[in-house]
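Hi C.,

You asked whether I'd gotten around to modeling the 307-residue construct. I have! Everything is below, sequence then structure, no commentary in between.
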Amino acid sequence: MAMHLQNDTVKFFIVGFSDIPNGQFPLFLFFLLVYILTVLGNLMLTVLISSSSLTNNPMYFFLCNLSSLDIVYTSVTCPKLIHIFLTNNGIMSFSQCIVQLFFFNAFWNTEYFLLTVMAYDRYVAICKPLHYTMIMNRRLCIIAAAGTWIGGMLGSITPTVPTAMVTYRAFNILNHFFCDIKALETLAIGNAFYIRNGILVHGLLCVTTSFICILVSYCYIITSILKIRTREGKYKAFSTCASHLSMVSMFYILLFDLYFRPKSTVSLSEGKVLTVLFVYIIPLLNPVVYSFRNREVKEACRKILRK
């Protein structure tokens, strides 16, 4: 109870990019443009897939979920950052900070769970093509998609609860542009051990498990592709998973670089740049890399424009 009363008075001042005084307006325009393009790009892809027959294809069904996820994932932090640029007021209450942390972790968890399901979908499509429609039926796709969202929410409890339970000073300067768990760990008084344990458990149960599942799926996929005799067949098989593989590679490289590299080897400015790439640029690129170069998506877009 005493901790609860204390935390009701705790405030966090989000430093953001105030260490670049001459770059505030360009940075404001940059993040505003990135947010608008991310929302519009992913929203257009979601509407396009939902209003066409593409939604009957498991790959596009999961892409629709991914686009919806990227919209809410970016919206957890970017509007607040834009508000800070406009008002120069980076103060957040303890409850606001913990809520932001919870939903950021939840949607982040959902993203790599969804990437894992999509890797399995590509595995079935390439390694078991004759049984693809039977295995990846509508019921399984809906259960898998719902499981990623529910699993993301549940997985967020592990790192968020320990972060909310530790003690903080009444006023804290948080040198980041949102309530990131690694930044909050540095502000905890005395018992950051619980936060580190929460990060460790979360990393082992969620991140590592998802990464291993994706790695195993692609080992089988690559093995199957190498067994194809014709060059055209190999190219066609690889092209079906090239977009997913490229985005998964970028996602996990940035993830491990940000949260699993020793803090002493990452400067604050470098950490912010990597986080911008991880939190904003990947959701911006997802609709482009996955779908805008896809022939079926282009054809569906033409049909809608004709109507």
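If it helps when you're writing up: Residues 2-306 form a domain with the Rhopdopsin 7-helix transmembrane proteins fold (CATH 1.20.1070.10).

Thanks,
B.
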